[in-house]
Amino acid sequence: MNEALPPSSRRAAKSPSVARHGRLKRHTLWKTLAKGAASVLAVLLVSGTAVGAYAALDLVQTAKPTVKLESEKVLEGVPDIGAIDGGVNLLVIGSDSRQGQGMAFGDPDEETAVLNDVTMLLHISQDHTHVEVISFPRDMLVSVPECPDPEDPEDPLSPLSSVKINTVLSYGGMDCVVKTVENLVGITIPLAGVVQFMGVAGLSEAVGGVDVCVAERIEDEYTGIFLDPGVHTLSGVPALQFLRTRHGVGDGSDLGRISNQYVFLSALARKLQADGTLNNPATLFGIAKAALDNMTLSNALANPTYMISIAKAMKDVDLSKIAFIQYPTAYVEGGGAVAPTASADAVNLALQQDVPVQLDAAGQDNAFTSATDPNAAPPADPSAEEAPAAEAPAAEAPAAETPAAPPVETLPSDVTGQSAAEVRCSVANDG
Q1: Does the residue 400 lie in any domain?
Q2: Which pTM value belongs to this model?
Q3: Which of 94, 117, 169, 272 has the maximum number of C-beta atoms within 10 A of its C-beta?
């Protein structure tokens, strides 16, 4: 996992022993008080109880220092407690750093790399009718634009070319990863968060576990996960092990792991809607607390009001309109890394124009997952339930009252992924 950091001639004079993830500054008193007021307001508006006020203050006391993003200047004002107004672009960065994670995931003194092994972009459309989650393979080669230096803002970091995306967090911190993805896809990303191992475990516990389907027995001694075929409710460390496993699923590659992660994430989306989780104040508080306790967040995202507003924007999105997409790549000559293919332009264009996407049937025929569960019937797809034509014939509705359907971007067949409505199962690595 410990890969060499990208080269930079401008860095030669600086100490090589300092991890390039930046030092975070503590909030000033007034910022902490302002954050506390926002937390109390958010939780009180949702719960309307004294317990809610206590919970909100608890959020403030446990929150980590935040990071300022250059792109967050596009955000104006504070949203109310309803669904956030307009669209959302949020980058979730999974760090493999062992610092502060105990010994369960390796010795933090021995495994000191700070690699963003998971980089996912969450896009919620302006009208809240569709959501795209884009995963960028950890070994994908990218260009890194000039970035602010977290340790010396007056002396920016030099641009880089053809470096693996998972080295960018170590090079320039959260803001640099954001700027790199912005440069890649052509949109502004004003919200971001870095999550470590225990953060993933905490978030899965906050929602009460996630039901995942396993088609074949998974055995992975590297992450310590062993699952028989069937449906398993995963929470805490087992959920993290499932998301981290690479050797136990697919072809043992990072691309296979991404497909496995979609099994978990699509199941999570179905759970959040089916259980009414996003309307439950206690669960919303648990999710916010897990995030604030375990994640390093950008300034705006650390506001619990924003967290709740983003959650509410997703609660009514049709599951078939939530698409998990693996950014299209192909192995470079010699292997060891991948590079974006021409099909990436179609993904970028859909994000830039804020249009829903449709995955080609061939793209969904994924060799790393299976739509068949041999031991348990998958849950029903609520999006498949339609009223009989005789009860509500489309032709009877006045044309003026029927909004025009937004254009749909049909992605090329080499773009793999799935919708949240599709129930898939993890396939074991037989290699």
Answers
A1: no
A2: 0.77
A3: 169
Cα radius of gyration rounded to whole Å, the chain: 22
Q: How many domains does the chain have?
A: 2
- Assigned domain for 277 exists: yes
Q: Are residues 130 and 53 in the same domain?
A: no
pLDDT in tens, the chain (431 residues): 444 444 443 443 343 333 344 444 444 444 444 444 444 344 334 433 444 444 444 555 555 678 888 888 888 655 555 678 889 999 999 887 545 444 344 444 555 568 888 899 999 999 999 999 999 999 999 999 999 998 898 899 999 999 999 999 999 999 999 999 999 999 999 999 998 767 777 888 888 899 999 999 999 998 889 999 999 999 988 998 898 888 888 878 888 888 888 998 999 899 888 877 777 777 777 777 777 777 888 988 887 777 778 888 888 899 999 999 999 999 999 888 999 999 999 999 999 999 999 998 765 555 566 665 444 444 444 343 444 444 444 455 455 555 555 678 889 999 999 999 999 999 888 76
Q: Is residue 117 part of a domain?
A: yes
In the numeric block, the tokens 């890394």 are attached to 337
Token pair for 110: 């021995």
Check which CATH number belongs to the domain holding 296 and give it: 3.40.630.190
CA-closest candidate to residue 287, choices 59, 33, 130: 59
Contact 373, 213 (CB under 8 A): yes
Q: Assess contact for 218 and 426: CB atoms under 8 A.
A: yes
